[in-house]
């Protein structure tokens, strides 16, 4: 979950089309890709319509332990008995798949984040 788990609605700059993420030592402003902007906009509108929107609220309400528990449960349902640190392993698997599919996108993202 990483930086996204601490993301608040006030971290989104709709006018500049950026999201501000707080790192360990500094903040990073990253551009929003169109699918992400659309998904966040839809989620925000749903919360406004349901009268549950608060600018100070977290966007993602799951904590890592909850996500891990849900993933392990889903894997057991299909007959796969999970290992420790499932979310961590999935993050590395996802990074590997991105790297295999589009190295330029990964490179550009790291450049924009100052990594």
Task: List the main descriptive attributes of the protein structure presented here.
115 residues, single chain, 3-stranded antiparallel beta sheet, 10% strand, 4 helices, mainly alpha, 50% helix
Concise summary:
Helix content is 50%, strand content 10%.
Helix content: 40-55%
Backbone structural class:
mainly alpha
Rg over C-alpha atoms, rounded to the nearest angstrom: 16 Å
| Overall mean confidence score, pLDDT | 75
Order of helices and strands: EEEHHHH
Shape field: globular
For the record, the count of structural domains works out to 2
| Strand residue percentage | 5-15%
* E-strand count: 3
State the low-pLDDT regions, or none: none
N- to C-terminal distance:
18 Å
Q: Helical stretch count?
A: 4
Main β sheet profile: 3 strands, antiparallel
How are the strands of the biggest sheet laid out side by side? 1-2-3
């Amino acid at each position: 979950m990483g930086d996204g788990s601490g993301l608040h609605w006030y971290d989104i700059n709709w006018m500049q089309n950026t999201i501000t993420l707080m790192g360990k030592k500094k903040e990073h402003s990253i551009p929003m890709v169109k699918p992400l902007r659309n998904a966040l906009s839809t989620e925000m509108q749903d919360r406004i319509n349901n009268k549950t929107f608060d600018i100070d609220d977290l966007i993602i309400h799951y904590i890592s332990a909850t996500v891990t528990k849900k993933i392990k449960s889903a894997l057991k349902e299909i007959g796969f008995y999970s290992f420790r640190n499932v979310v961590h392993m999935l993050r590395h698997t996802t990074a590997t798949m991105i790297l295999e599919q589009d190295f330029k996108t990964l490179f550009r993202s790291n450049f924009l984040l100052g990594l």
